[in-house]
Structures are given as structure tokens and as C-alpha cells.
Design brief:
Bound molecules: phosphoric acid mono(formamide)ester
CATH topology of the largest domain: Rossmann fold
CATH architecture of the largest domain: 3-Layer(aba) Sandwich
CATH class of the largest domain: Alpha Beta
Strand content: 15-25%
Distance between the termini: 32 Å
Largest sheet: 5 strands, parallel
Helix content: 25-40%
Strand order of the largest sheet: 7-6-5-8-9
CATH superfamily of the largest domain: Aspartate/ornithine carbamoyltransferase
Length: 366
Amino acid sequence: MRSLIDIEDLSVDELNELIAVANDIAAHPEQYADACRGKKLATLFFEPSTRTRLSFEAAMIELGGSVIGFSEANSSSASKGESVADTARVISCYADIIAMRHPKEGAPYVASQNASVPVINAGDGGHCHPTQTLADLLTIYREKGRLSHMTVGFCGDLKYGRTVHSLIAALSRYPGVEVVLISPEELKLPSYVIYETLNKKKMAYRQTDDLEGAIPSLDVLYMTRVQRERFSDPAVYERLKDSYILTVEKLAGAKPDLSILHPLPRVHEISVRVDKDPRACYFKQVMNGKLMRMALILKLLNEASHGRSECGPAGDLLINRVRCRNPRCITSTEQELDQIFRWTEKENGICRCLYCEAKEIIDERK
Ligand code: CP
């Protein structure tokens, strides 16, 4: 069954197709009002959400379908110890498609391996958030008329900001995109994103802690919240939380056609006075998220009805007993995975956990 776990599960042609369908839905919503009549979406949210959950629900309702689900782990049987795998098998009996958010990296991937309906990753820990990336891509496309040949600044929490990781991966597939990474030392982009995406795709990038110095070169500025929920030490969060605050004054040197994006929720990192600036696009981004989720639901349900079944990351699969050591990985809590660890082989004998991004040198004799 085809699912969407990582933005790289979609080809560039498919991204462009989703953008085209989303634009068509915006222009002719009445033509889509019955497209999912009789179909059910299950929203399984083990972590808080406003936009993602409600935009999925609004998307399905506007397609003529209906919605079931829960908005916190405590109101599901996860609170009694039910596994993600069992939850996915059970919900497959009730719904035609699942959108799942979970604090553990790789949880939606586990769900996709056990569900008999498509699973959409609605955010897994600090790992990926592919449908936010779809919203971001549509916003950039609508504002700029292209997804190539531009300079995009990412500012704030680049370490835990899953939307940043997914958007960099998506933009790396379009030519001529240059990235400016603006963060304090402690919140720099993880080395796996630098290695796997920026270096491998030969994407031009530079790192700085100077937001004002970077602004004049940017076509797009992607602001992010410092992700309090990912910090083990509250004192570190308190020290870093207001590292960057975008103000009207700081925009003085910006290009007149700069587009300012933010996946939201915002805390303090964009002054509310910036909201009136025509370059502020973050509320348009919310609307674009619903349109792209409508296009995605249509695509995955259509493929499911035609029996398309490809799924999962590329690469040779190794299944063995070497435990992933990332405490944020779903393998640290999922009972069914206690003895099965899945790794994909990378160069020089280094393998990557298929659930998260942890790397290990695997000794196959074990
Ligand atoms: N952008 C985003 O994921 O928002 P929510 O956490 O409210 O879903």
C-alpha cells in the first residue's frame, strides 16, 4: 500500500502534480465536493496539533468524505500499552486512509508496515513532516512562480525543526536553490541532513548566526519556533527560546519580494507587527496546507483503489539484532520491534536505521 512517510517518497513529477491539483481545487472547489464520498479518514494524533489535524479533517470533509480519530494519546488505547503496529491494524478496519502524528521517530513508518490502508506521516518527533512541506512548496510556488533558482534562509531551531529537514530535502531536488542556515550553535542543522541532503545533492549552503546580515540576500525566509517539547533540559530551552525575533526593523534591508514563511505555531519569533507586511505569507501557508492535503488524499486513495503498492525507502534492507541507540526512535518503545531492527546499507559499511536516521557500523557476523 502506498503511504507518505518522507517527502522523498514523492518524485518531483508527483510534487508538481500535487501542486497542479491543489491549484485546481482552489479554482474549482465545487468539482471536488464529492470526490471522497463514502470514504473515511482516521486522524491518529499522539501529539498536540492545531493546523495539521484540523486541516486534514477539513480537507476530507471538503472532499465529501468523513473523519474519525483522536487528538491525544491519552484518549486512545496507547495509554493502556497498545502498540503502534496493532493500532494501525485495528484502524485499517475502520478507515480508508490514516494520518498519524507521533512523538517517536519512525512511528508512522511502523504504522505503514502494518496497515492495509495508506498512512500519511503528519509529523514524527523531530524527524519529518512531509505534508507541512507540501504546504511550504505550494506557498513558495504561488508566491514566486517557481521552486528553482532562489536563496532560501532557514532561521531558528534547525536541529529539532522537522519541517526544516523535510523542506530542505524537497528543495534539494530543484535546480539552483541555495540555502542559508541561520541558528545558534546548539540548534544547528543535524549532520545527517548536511551529509545526506546538502552534500550529496551538491546544494550550495552557508551557516551563520546573523539573521540581519543574511536577510538582504534572501528570496524566502523560513522562520521556525524553538521546539520546547524536544529539550531534555528546560534551562537550555529558556536560554535559546528567543534567539531570533523577526521585527519590522530587521526587514529594512530585505528584498521587496521576499516571502516570509513559518510553519506555525509562532511563539515570539515573528513580531505580530510583521503580519501586516505584504511579504508575510504564513497565514496563506495554512490555507495552502489544506489544499495540498486534499490533493494528497485524492492521490493516495486513487492509487489504493488501483492497487498501487510500492512503499518504503530505497536501499538494501538488513534485518538483524543490532539495536538502534537513538532513544527517540520508535524501536525504543515498540514491543513488536524488540527483536527486529531494520537497517539500510550505506557506503563504507555504515548502515542507517530505517525508522529514524541513526547510523551504525553493522557487523553482519553478529
Ligand atoms: N505546522 C504544524 O504542524 O502545526 P500543528 O502542530 O498545529 O499541526
